[in-house]
Amino acid sequence: MDNLPLDGTPLASGPLTRAVLEIDEYTAGLGWDQPARLFALVDTARLRTQEPELAQQLGLGEPDASAGEQPGSSSSAASLTPVEQDEIPASVPLDEFLGTIAWPDSVDGCALTLERLMLPPSAEASVPSGLDDAELSRWVAEHPERKEVRMTVAVLRDGERESALRLREKDATTEVLTGSGLVPGLAEALSATFEE
After folding, report:
1. Per mean pLDDT, which range of 34-43, 52-61, 111-120, 166-175 is the poorest?
2. CA pair distance 173, 175, nearest whole angstrom
């Protein structure tokens, strides 16, 4: 017996994990070679109450008891809805862009999905010294052990974190790796968007 419901999305224990997997599945449907995408995470019940037209546009019907939602609930632990934000400018480095973000109180968390090339830890010893960023990127892109990966990282205001990693060579819902500490640097950068 597998852990997939009828729609093929893996079962997830918490609302943040469910939101991360929902974003991963959405992005996977767009294919590879996509730009980075930023999402606000909002409490689903509160969204239905405070922004009913937006909730309707997002296809949010009545509360889903199987996801832990309760009618009239305002707890962010019940269910989170990802709301995609405007496109991230390609001309601005990601760390600089994230430094410009300030979220309103109605946003409970945020998530970012992006694609990168990764190397196994064994390749670190063979990195030539003295490379600038462009040279290092080129070296990684040409490395025979490189892996293309899509990372989806989410954080909540209270510090909770979750991540999902999908390898291009294993591009299947059942092959997505999840965990709170998979991309700690990106999680820190996203958490900083909630600091005052």
Report:
1. 52-61
2. 5
Per-residue pLDDT tens over the stretch 4-53: 445 544 555 789 999 999 999 999 999 999 999 999 999 998 888 888 88
Query: Which residue's entry shows tokens 């909630």?
Result: 194
CA torsion 116-121-126-127 (nearest 10°) is 40
d(CA 16, CA 47): 16
SS3 track for 11-76: CCCCHHHHHHHHHHHHHHHHCCCCCCEEEEEEEHHHHHHHCHHHHHHCCCCCCCHHHCCCCCCCCC
pTM of the model: 0.80
